[in-house]
Amino acid sequence: MKIFLLGATGDTGYEVLKKLISENHKVKILVRTPSKLNTADIPNLQKDQIEVIQGSVMEAEKLIDLFKDCDAIVSALGTGKNNSYTEIYSKGGRNIIAAMRSNQIKRLITITSALIDMSDTSTDNFFLNRIIRPNFNKIYSDQTRWETILDDTTDINWTCVRPTYLVNKEFTGRYRIKNQHCPPKGRKIGRSDLADFIVKVLYSNEYIHQKPVLAY
Ligand SMILES: NC(=O)c1ccc[n+]([C@@H]2O[C@H](COP(=O)([O-])OP(=O)(O)OC[C@H]3O[C@@H](n4cnc5c(N)ncnc54)[C@H](OP(=O)(O)O)[C@@H]3O)[C@@H](O)[C@H]2O)c1
C-alpha cells in the first residue's frame, strides 16, 4: 500500500512513519520544512520507501494532485507547543476530505484528543477542567470543529483516534482502547503505542466512523 502521511516531522507522525516503512509500505509525506525530518534511526535501505514533498495541508489544490497514487491517508497534524488559534484540523481536514473524494480514496485515520469530549465523566475533574482545558482551548475548539465535519462525512471511512496525554516512551503494545470515552482511570499513552494502533486500524474495518480513546 502507498500511504500519504501528514505530520511526519512531529513526534507521533514520525512514529507512524517508522512503523509504516518497517511493514514495507511506501509512504508519501507532506512536510512544511523537509530539513526538520530526522531519519537518523531509519535504516538506509528503507529510506527509499519514503517520498518527501514540501508543502502545507492548507494547499488544497496541491493535495488533490499529491493524493493521486495513494491508497489511504494518515493525519498526525498538530500545533506542537503553539496553543494559539488554529484551523489546521478543520480547514486542513476539509482539504484532506476534498482531495480524498477527488481521488476516490476511502480510508482516513486522524487524531484529536480525549479531552474534547465533555460528555466523558471520567475526564471531568478540577485539574483537567481548570488547568488543562483552558490552556488548550483553542486547539480543542478546532479539533471539535473537525470532529463535527467528520460526523457529517459518511462517504469516507474515517477513524478519529483520541489519545490521552501523550508521552515519548518505549513501545509496549499493551494499551486499552475504549470507543469515545477514556478507559477507566486512563491518563496517558506513548506515541509509539499510538502509532501502533493507527497502523493496525489503517488496514482493518474496525473503528470506522468511531472515535477510539487510547490509554494504558
Ligand atoms: N500532547 C498531548 O498530550 C496530546 C494529547 C492528546 C492529543 N494530542 C494530539 O496528538 C496530535 C499529535 O501530537 P504530537 O505532539 O505528537 O505532534 P506535533 O508535535 O503537534 O506535530 C504536529 C505535526 O503537524 C505538522 N503541521 C502543523 N501544521 C501543518 C501544516 N499547515 N501543514 C502540514 N503539516 C503541518 C507539524 O509540522 P512542523 O514540524 O512543520 O511544525 C508536525 O509535523 C496532535 O494533533 C495533538 O493535538 C496531543
Automatic annotation (TrEMBL):
Residue ranges occupied by any NAD(P)-binding domain in the UniProt entry: 7-202
Name assigned to this protein: SDR family oxidoreductase
Tree of life domain: Bacteria
Pfam families (alphabetical): NAD_binding_10
PANTHER family membership: FLAVIN REDUCTASE (NADPH) (PTHR43355:SF2)
